[in-house]
Amino acid sequence: MPDTITTTTAMHDSVQAERARIADLSRIVTQARLTLPHTIADNLHARAIADGWSADAMRSALFQALVQGADRPRASTPAQDLRGQTISSDPNNPAAVRDAMAEAIAVRSMHGYVAASPRHTEFLGLRPSQMAEELLRLRGQGVPSRDPMVIAERALTTTSDFPALLAAAANKMLLAGYQPARPTYRSVFRRRDFRNFKPHHHLRLGDFPALMPLVEGGEIQVGTISESKETLLLSTFARRVRVTRQMLVNDDLGAFTDFAAMIGRRIADFENATAYGVVNTANGDGPMLLTGNAPVFATSAARANKAVTGTVLDLTNLAAGRAAIMKQRSLDGMPIAIGERMRLLVGPSLELPALQLTVAVTAAEISKENVYAGMIEPVVDPMIPGNRWYLFADPETAPVFVYGFLEGATGPQVATGPIQGVDGVEISVVFDFGVGAVDWRGGWFNPGA
Fold first, then answer.
1. Which of the four, 98, 249, 331, 374, has the lowest number of CB atoms within 10 Å?
2. What is the pLDDT of residues 261-307, one digit of tens each?
C-alpha cells in the first residue's frame, strides 16, 4: 500500500507540473498574438506543448519568429526539452535525436502518420533497445556491454532520455489522432474553458440590463446582470500504460504503441459520448436545471420548448420548433435575438428527412424550394436514438449546453513517471473535460413519432 501511495503521489506531482507548464505557455502565446500572426503563434504553441518546451524556450522561439518573420517553426529555434536543455540544430544533439526517434516510432506504429521532418528516416530501422543505447551514448553514458538487460536498466532510469522519448512519441500519436477529430456535439454546444476545478457559474443570455434614457447632465442608472444558479464542473479522466524492462529487452513496445495510436481517437469519441449522454438524460429531456427545478426540455409554460406529442420531422413541425425558440424571452422578459442560423440535431434514422428539409435544391416552383436551406444546418450523430430530433439556435447566441477544457490544456496531455517497485516507466494520459446544461431558451425537443 505505501508503494501505491508513493506512485500515485509521484504521478500526481508530474501531472500538476505539466499542467502548470502548459498554462504558462498559453499565457505567453496570448500576449504574443498581439504582435505575431495567430497562425505562427498557434503553430509554435502546439509544438511547445508537444515537445516539452519551457516558458523561456517559448519566449525565445516567439521572439525569433518576430525578428525573422518566420512562418513556421525552424530547426534553429532555441527550443528546450522536458528537462530544460536546449534543442539545437546540431545533428548529434540528444534532444533533436530524441525528437526524430519519436517521429520514427510514430510513423512505424500509426498508419497515416506524417512526420514533421525527414530526419526520422535515420531511425526507422532501429529497435527500441538500439534507440535507448544511442541516446545513452549521446549523453556520454555509454554502456560497458551491449547486453539488452544492462541497456534496459539504464534506459529506464528517471535521468535517461528514453522515458522522454516514449512520452514524446505518445504525444505525437495522440495528437495526430485527436486533433483531426471533429465530434459533432461541438456544433450544438458552446465552448467555455475552465480556469480551475471550482464550480463555474454561467451568465444567462440577454440578461444585461435594458438601456435607460440619459438626459443632458443626468446620471447613468445602475443596473445588474442576472446570473443563473446553473454551475459547471471540470472533471479529470485518465488512463496509463506501462513500459517495463522486459518489454524493452524483448524489443516489444506493441502495447505502448497501440495505446498511443488509438487513444487520441478514443478520447474524441469519449468526449462526444459524454456530451450526448447529457443531452439524452431522462429520455431526451435533459438534466434538471436548478432554475425552475425542471429538466432542460419541458412542455410547461415556463419552458415551452418541447413538443406535447412527438411528431414526424417535416416542414410544418420544423417551423413550429423554430417559432417556439424565437418566442423565448430572457430572465428579465426581454426578447432574445436568436438569429436565423439554427442546427437540426438527429440520429441516423432521421438523416434523410433532415437533409431533404435543409439542403438547397433547384425547383421549378418557389413553393417547392427548401425555405430553410442555408438557415438550418443538419447535424447527424448515432448517439441520438430513435426518431428524436432537436433544434438549436447558434450556441454562441443562445447556449443550452456548454463544454470546456482546462485553460491551457485543450485536449489530452501526456505525462511519464516511474513504476514503484518495478523496472519501467508509466505513460499517463490525462484529460480535463467538463460539460453540462446551462439554459433552455435556445433549444427545442421533439420526441419523434
1. 374
2. 788 888 999 999 999 999 999 999 999 998 889 999 999 998 999 99
- CA-CA distance, 128 to 325, in Å (whole number)? 59
Residue at a domain's end among 89, 109, 135:
89
Using the 3D structure, point to which of 89, 115, 132 is the last residue of a domain. 89
| Same domain, residue pair 325 and 436 | yes
User: Residue 402 is inside which H or E element, if any?
Assistant: strand 401-405
Contact 95, 211 (CB under 8 A): no
Task: Determine contact, residues 411/175, Cβ cutoff 8 Å.
Answer: yes
Among 433, 79, 64, 52, which Cα is nearest to 269's? 433
Mean pLDDT of the chain: 80
Same domain, 194 and 304: yes
Nearest Cα residue to 264 out of 389, 97, 431, 47: 431
Query: Which DSSP state fits 33?
Result: T
Claim to verify: residue 194 and residue 318 sit in the same structural domain:
yes
Number of domains in the chain: 2
Burial of 293 (0-12, 13-18, 19+ CB in 10 A): exposed
Residues 444, 327, single domain; the answer is yes
Does 212 reside within a domain?
no
Residue 431 Cα distances to 185, 389, 405, angstroms = 17, 30, 8
Same domain assignment for residues 65 and 199: no
Residues 74, 193: one domain? no
* Cα–Cα dist 399/441, whole Å: 8
176 pLDDT tier (thresholds 50, 70, 90): confident
Neighbours of 410 (CB within 10 A): 18
Q: C-alpha cell of 270?
A: 469519449
Within-domain flag for 170: no
Instruction: Report DSSP state, residue 303.
Output: T
For the ranges 151-160, 267-276, 326-335, the maximum mean pLDDT occurs at: 267-276
Domain carrying residue 32: 1-89
Report d(CA 150, CA 146) in Å as an integer: 7
* One-letter identity of residue 366: I
Q: What is the pTM of this model?
A: 0.70
What is the chain's Cα-based Rg? 27
Let me know whether 196 and 72 are in one domain.
no
Q: pLDDT value at position 190?
A: 93
Q: Are residues 345 and 188 in contact, defined by beta-carbon separation less than 8 angstroms?
A: yes
Angle between helices 38-51 and 162-178 (to 10 degrees): 140
pLDDT over 90 for what percent of the chain?
27
Query: 399: which residues sit within 8 A by CB, 6+ positions away?
Result: 189, 190, 205, 438, 439, 442
